[in-house]
Amino acid sequence: MSDQPSDQQPRPGAPRRFLFLDAGARLDGNSAQLARLAAESSLPAGAEQRWLRLSEHPLPPFQDLRHTGDGRYPEPVGHERTLLDATLAATDLVFVAPLYWYSLPTSAKLYLDYWSAWFRVPGVDFRAGMRGGTVWGVTALATEDDKAEPLIGTLRLTAEYMGMRWGGALLGNGTRPGDVLRDERALIAAKSFFAD
After folding, report:
1. How confident is residue 68, by pLDDT bands cut at 50, 70 and 90?
2. Domain range spanning residue 33?
């Protein structure tokens, strides 16, 4: 039930800090339930965790300013600042994202679009700050596992582009609330998902 992780090693040093980015449109949906189970049973000893629901930190539509003026973006404020600071503080980013039309939910894609701005905010060396971290995906879907390939590919290629490790994807099957907790394969995979 999990996609194969890369061979890159996580950043050495301080305790791991996991940022769970819940992109679900349903509070405590199947993806979130599966992610919480994985966090409870397989996070490394001493790891910190922070959970943010992207719907509670809405971002305006992304504007591409790369070829406007000096191409720099203004200092982030509000929800954007919260998300940027939380992202840079994390060693591990976990996209808790149900499969919507074979890809990421809108809120997760919009959050990733903002990375293009964060590359160009004066004083924020975003790429260097992210290098060596790990990207993970936890998703619930209502079809065969191979239908999640576009979502998995987006996250894996993002990790590769950023010089980050791809930790893998934990997939569970579920449509109605709580369905994923009856997916035995997903429950077994969750118990060791974050273990390195």
Report:
1. confident
2. 17-59+89-109+131-190
3-state secondary structure (DSSP) of residue 186? helix
Count the Cβ atoms, other than its own, within 10 Å of residue 122: 9
Global confidence as pTM: 0.91
Map tokens 């979502």 to a residue. Answer: 151
Distance CA(107)–CA(95), nearest Å, equals 11
d(CA 94, CA 81): 19
Separation CA 156–CA 135 (nearest Å): 8
The candidate with the shortest Cα–Cα distance to 117, out of 53, 68, 155, is 68
Length of the chain: 196
The pLDDT tens digits for 6-49 are: 444 445 567 999 999 999 999 999 999 999 999 999 999 999 99
* Number of folded domains that form the chain: 1
Q: Provide the strand spans (E) within 9-133.
A: 17-22, 48-53, 92-96
If pLDDT is split at 50, 70 and 90, which confidence band does 160 have?
very high
Give domain status of residue 79, yes or no. no
